[in-house]
């Protein structure tokens, strides 16, 4: 699998907004909705990991 570009937290939020818009469409199939939902879950997980890392970095800086 090719290396994917690392997304910023802002990029992830933008992608999630796009997924939500697609899922709100009246023409989307149930199968496509599930695919988008799963993609969204992965993005939320990635975003949470990035936020946790930032929080840990802030804690380290505060304790120096």
Description:
Keywords: Cytoplasm, Exonuclease, Hydrolase, Nuclease. One of its GO terms (cellular component) is exodeoxyribonuclease VII complex. Belongs to the XseB family. This protein has two helices and no strands. The protein is mostly helical. The protein has a domain at 31-64. α1 runs antiparallel to α2 (30-62). The model has no long low-confidence stretch (mean pLDDT 91).
What is shown here, in short?
Helices cover 75% and strands 0% of the residues. With 64 residues, it is an all-alpha fold.
Helix run count: 2
Mean pLDDT: 91
The proportion of residues in beta strands is under 5%
Structural class: mainly alpha
- Gyration radius, in Å: 16 Å
The total count of strands amounts to: 0
Report low-confidence residues grouped into runs of 5 or more. Answer: none
Order of secondary-structure elements: HH
Described by strand count, sense and barrel closure, the largest sheet is: none
Taking the alpha carbons of the first and last residues, their distance comes to 40 Å
Assembly state of the chains shown = single chain
Outline: elongated
- Helical content (DSSP H or I, runs of 4+): over 70%
Give the topology, please.
Elements: H1 9-23, H2 30-62
Which properties best describe this structure?
single chain; 64 residues; mainly alpha; 2 helices; 0% strand; elongated; exodeoxyribonuclease VII activity
